[in-house]
Amino acid sequence: MDRDAILNQIRIVTNIPTATVSDADIVISLMEGIVMHSGVLNKAQILQAIKKAQEPPSEKEQEQAAEMQQLTIDAQKEELRSTKLENEKLIAETKKLIAEERVEQARAQNADDKVGIEVGKLILEKGKLEQFGEQNDIAEKRLELQDKQVTANIRKANRS
After folding, report:
1. Helices 43-54 & 23-36, crossing angle to 10 degrees?
2. Fewest C-beta in 10 Å: which of 2, 48, 68, 153?
3. Running DSSP on this structure, what letter comes out for residue 56?
């Protein structure tokens, strides 16, 4: 027999309406049948437990289940908040590190600029010293020329 044929036979035997049959109903009906036809001593207790399992939960049980579900949801929300805060902390720390790096880059650039300025000053100073040296060379040559002219004037004056 296939599954549908078996389920149909069980429906007929258990008097469960076809429209409302679920696999759970069938399993429970089978359990009841097995217990009723077995030789266990506590049949009444087992059958009572099976019937109790079939009953819808009491209002108190439903409230407890709803409360438990809400507590679970609240715990998950708190876990998400915690994770979000940790992520935000990591983002803030990353931004801080990036900002510190930018400050260091600016300081390094500033130091490079200062070195560039100092190099420029030294180049200017070198230029001034070279110019001063050239002026001294010109002055020395002028003095040599003046000395030669004075010497020539003295010789000329001595001849006359």
Report:
1. 170
2. 2
3. P
Which amino acid does the sequence have at 129?
Answer: L
């008097």: which residue's tokens?
Answer: 15
Judged by DSSP in three states, 44 sits in helix
pTM of this structure:
0.45
Do 49 and 55 meet the contact criterion of CB atoms below 8 Å apart? no
- How far apart CA 116 and CA 153 sit, in angstroms, is 54
pLDDT digit string (tens) for 88-130? 999 999 999 999 999 999 999 999 999 999 999 999 999 999 9
Token pair recorded at residue 70:
């809400």
Residue 53: the pLDDT is: 73
Per-residue buried b or exposed e for 15-38, using 16+ beta carbons within 10 Å of the residue's own CB: ebeeeebeeebbebbeebeebeee
Coil vs helix vs strand at 4: helix
Could you tell me if 54 and 24 are in contact, meaning their C-beta atoms sit under 8 angstroms apart? no
158, two tokens: 């001595």
